[in-house]
Amino acid sequence: MSAPAHLRFAPSPNGRLHRGHAYSALLNAEIARRLGGHLSLRIEDIDPVRSRPELVAAIVEDLAWLGVVWSGPVRRQSEHMADYAAARDGLAAAGLLYPCFCSRGEIRERVAAGTEPPRDPDGIPLYPGTCRGLDPAAALVRIAAGAPHTWRLDMGRALIRAPGPHGYAAFAPDGTERWAAADPARWGDAVIARRDVPTSYHLAVVHDDAAQGITHVVRGQDLEAATDLHVLLQRLLGLPSPSYHHHGLIRDAEGEKLAKSRGSTALADLRAQGVAVAGLRAEFGFSTA
């Protein structure tokens, strides 16, 4: 018999949860219930500057208010940096990563000096490959001397190692699935490990989904394109691919998606205003029982 469905809600503790997070958490819990599975809580706190301990406690408080229950211990990404470093080093040893010493400003200057570059799904100009051809020995000397650097995926080599077609199982809330094509190449030489930590969101999330045995990923449509890169990393690392559902986003009165960076109203503020959780659940179409 196959293992029961395992989902996860994975917020970052860099701001208070808002209505968009509430919808995603409730949907994860509801789909886990429908599939006869269980839900885990993961705290994605790889950012050492923006992640704050008090916001982890706030996340737990908000989920308790919503009535979202998870099973097992809470996984905190900050406690698994050695695992991410090992995955990064394995990709580098296979010749699939290269160190990049370009600052964001330098990249912007090079891009501005040329013709209009292709852009990734987030609208960011693709990295022009400035450091891709650096002598490996010379690069290691610079790293040993403390030169700031990221690690980028050599997309060309990666696609040779894991040729397409690429895709993943996309499922609906009722559990029915379809095959969705993926195009990792549109991300170019993406950053796989950052300057300050040995990982990126992309590397950490595919590692953790496999480590936790996640079978179904439920997240917003703003991360749908990133799945193209994630399925490639899963292939390169020999990891299983979960099924994915990318739900619609909760938007404000101007039609913009809710975001911590835009000052969207926090769930804590809604509580302070006397908003009842039953009303919020009903607004999203979830049972108030």
Shape field: globular
Examine the coordinates and then state which fold CATH places here, giving the name of the CATH topology of the largest domain.
Glutamyl-tRNA Synthetase, domain 3
| Low-pLDDT runs | none
Main-sheet strand order equals: 1-2-3
Number of strands: 10
Structural class call reads: alpha/beta
What oligomeric state do the depicted chains represent?
single chain
Q: How much of the residues is beta strand, in percent?
A: 15-25%
**DSSP summary: helix tally:** 10
* Biggest sheet architecture: 3 strands, parallel
Helix content: 25-40%
Q: Provide the residue-averaged pLDDT.
A: 93
Radius of gyration computed on alpha carbons: 20 Å
How many domain regions? 2
Helix-strand pattern, N to C? EHEHEHEHHEHEEEHEHEHH
CATH C-level of the largest domain: Alpha Beta
List keywords for this structure.
globular, Rossmann fold, ATP binding, 289 residues, glutamate-tRNA ligase activity, ATP-binding, Glutamyl-tRNA Synthetase, domain 3, 3-stranded antiparallel β-sheet, 36% helix, zinc, Glutamate--tRNA ligase
